[in-house]
């Protein structure tokens, strides 16, 4: 018990040192803070290595009940070997960040020391086969919803309001609600029945007032050698005296960019799965639904409501049911395993206590001898059979 507590203290110390490490500020590790943390890291590695060696000597290396026969011991062995490779590369002035990241697995050594945590981890591992069937069902459901989305809305989220052809005065190629087009204005094509049309593009506003000039005013000012719009102080348009360029974005056409830097679309099944995953997380799904409704039809909300009910509510609760069902079985098995380990630890006294009557039967004073020496006592073949049976029973109890 004392060794287990010391091991847990070292694991907690390792967690603290890993949390205090600052790689961006300690690139060359020249500060006292970094050197102290390195010293603690070396001490922790030496402790884990010595612990592994002691267990190997006590239990053996290969075998069913030896050191490498346990899964968690194999994890400890991998962590120690990865640390050995890391320190050997440091001695050769070589730096492999991927090997250094293995040290974050050291806190996992606490799983084998805490029975309740081990039960939870084994529970997750035991539920993987059962969750595989649930995930397979989720895959088919998402595949069906993805096909529906691709068939209905492929390319529609790229719809933008463009000006008429050969109209070159506009400052932007299509209407943008903001400079970076993070929230695009998605219009509906004439063949669709979406909510938004190019006629719904709002008027341009400057200084809190809608612009009242048109392209003829801009052309007239250009003919006079002036700027298209009146300027105040040489930089800012006078409130209201500006050209309403937005009224000339009248043609809805499929463009080249999708919302959110091209991440949100139904152009293919892969992007459709990304959108479906975001919808079932209930993060930003309303905005995606509005995009689809603007471009295609108002009744597309049915798709998203069904997806949330099936994907977000039904599938997640189904996974929880599987985990809850497996929890009782795993807890019972782990409890039985701990009882067997305790019985194995106390089995050293079993041979002297339980099969003692057999030894008293085998080694007892002979009644025919006048001396007090203990002699082997058995009567004929039947007596030898009873002797073998008694020995066999004693060995099985041991």
Defining traits:
398 residues, elongated, calcium channel, 6% strand, glycoprotein, voltage-gated channel, VDCC_alpha-1_subunit, 8 strands, Four Helix Bundle (Hemerythrin (Met), subunit A)
* SSE class: mainly alpha
The number of distinct structural domains comes to: 4
Biggest sheet details: 2 strands, antiparallel
Quaternary state of this entry equals: single chain
Assess the beta-strand content as a share of residues: 5-15%
| Poorly predicted parts | 232-236, 348-364, 368-384, 394-398
Q: What radius of gyration results from the CA coordinates?
A: 39 Å
Give the spatial strand order of the biggest sheet. Answer: 1-6
Shape: elongated
Order of helices and strands: HHHHHEEEHEEEHHHHHHEEH
* SS element count, helices: 13
How would you characterize this protein structure?
By secondary structure, this protein is mainly alpha-helical. It has four domains: 2-113, Four Helix Bundle (Hemerythrin (Met), subunit A) (Up-down Bundle), CATH 1.20.120; 114-199 and 253-345, no CATH class; 202-248, no CATH class; 350-397, no CATH class. It has helices at residues 2-20, 32-59, 71-91, 97-100, 115-153, 215-223, 259-262, 269-280, 285-295, 301-345, 350-353, 356-362, 380-397; strands at residues 159-162, 205-206, 209-210, 231-232, 236-237, 251-254, 363-365, 374-376. A hairpin with a 2-residue loop joins strand 2 (205-206) and strand 3 (209-210). Helix 1 packs antiparallel against helix 2.
Quick summary:
The chain has 398 residues and is mainly alpha-helical.
